[in-house]
């Protein structure tokens, strides 16, 4: 996973302590997943600037449903954009598709943030997309500004023949916001070359 801009905070932000919905030790229940996020980072989006902040590089090939998650807080960006870049090179835009615009001041189901609480959103279904090994998902500033958050994204493989599903994903290990050396060097090559 690749940092394009330095986040506003050096250390990842941890979720509020406790076992309620989206808190750090939320064990989940029959209707919701446990907290899969653990921590998050954020960037300050300026109104009118369409900056790219971050990219997740799952190194997967085939059809995948993309599940998004973020840290929920009352002032977080209302229109954070998630963009699939098929060739993994942010410099080429014609292969980019916006797969979701997310209100990060609400949970994935649309419930409002809880004042003074840092909570994990749960997973938002961003649709089924064709991935190549070099494809990445970019976090891009929206139009409205505000802190824009990166946390785990999950990729659920969807075989051609499988029926449409909308429920809980069949989980793969999440691709987190923590940078890895391989992705970073690959990104740098694509940025420079
Ligand atoms: Ca591209």
Descriptive tags:
193 residues, mainly beta, Jelly Rolls, five-stranded antiparallel beta sheet, three-stranded antiparallel beta sheet, 13 strands, globular, disordered C terminus, binds calcium ion
Q: Mind explaining what this structure looks like?
A:
By secondary structure, the chain is mainly beta. It has one domain (2-192): Jelly Rolls (Sandwich). It is 6% helix and 33% strand. It has one helix and 13 strands; from the N terminus they run βββββββββββββα. The strands form four sheets. It has a five-stranded antiparallel sheet. Strands 2-3-12 form a three-stranded antiparallel sheet, with no helix packed on it. Strands 10-5-13 form a three-stranded antiparallel sheet, with no helix packed on it. It starts with a strand and ends with a helix. Residues 85, 87, 89, 92, 95-96 line the site of calcium ion.
CATH second-level architecture:
Sandwich
Give a count of the beta strands, DSSP E runs of length 2 or more.
13
| Rg over C-alpha atoms, rounded to the nearest angstrom | 16 Å
**What is the number of helices?**
1
The CATH class is: Mainly Beta
> The CATH topology is what?
Jelly Rolls
- Report strand order across the widest sheet: 1-4-11-7-8
> Which kinds of small molecule does this entry bind, naming each only once?
calcium ion
Give the structural class: mainly beta
- What's the overall average pLDDT, rounded? 84
Residue stretches low in confidence (pLDDT < 50, at least 5 long) are 179-193
Coarse morphology: globular
């Amino acid at each position: 996973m690749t940092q394009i801009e330095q986040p506003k905070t050096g250390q990842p932000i941890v979720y509020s302590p406790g076992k309620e919905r989206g808190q750090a030790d939320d064990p989940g229940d029959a209707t919701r997943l446990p907290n899969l996020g653990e921590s998050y980072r954020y960037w300050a989006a300026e109104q009118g600037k369409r900056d790219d902040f971050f990219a997740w590089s799952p190194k997967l090939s085939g059809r995948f449903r993309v599940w998004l998650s973020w840290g929920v807080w009352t002032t977080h960006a209302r229109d954070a954009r998630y963009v699939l870049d098929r060739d993994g090179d942010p410099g080429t835009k014609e292969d980019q598709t916006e797969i979701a615009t997310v209100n990060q001041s609400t949970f994935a189901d649309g419930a409002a943030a809880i004042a003074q609480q840092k909570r994990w959103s749960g997973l938002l279904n961003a649709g089924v997309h064709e991935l190549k090994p070099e494809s990445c998902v970019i976090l891009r500033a929206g139009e409205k500004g505000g802190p824009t958050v990166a946390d785990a994204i999950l990729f659920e493989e969807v075989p051609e023949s499988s029926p449409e599903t909308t429920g809980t994903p069949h989980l793969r290990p999440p691709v987190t916001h923590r940078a890895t050396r391989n992705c970073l060097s690959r990104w740098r090559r694509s940025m420079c070359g």
